[in-house]
Design brief:
It is built from 1 helix and no strands. With about 50 residues, the chain is mostly helical.
Amino acid sequence: MLHWATAQLAVLFIILRWLEMVTLQYSIVRREQFGTSIINHLPCVVSWYLQS
């Protein structure tokens, strides 16, 4: 049980780091549009992660 929770945390951390990298990459090109889409999709991602 504990190992599974640790694995989930590791996956979440990797996803967050990837999102940060992608956001930094796109912020130069289309900062406002991309930032808004990330903020709009964040609740969906969080709820999907909590349900899984």
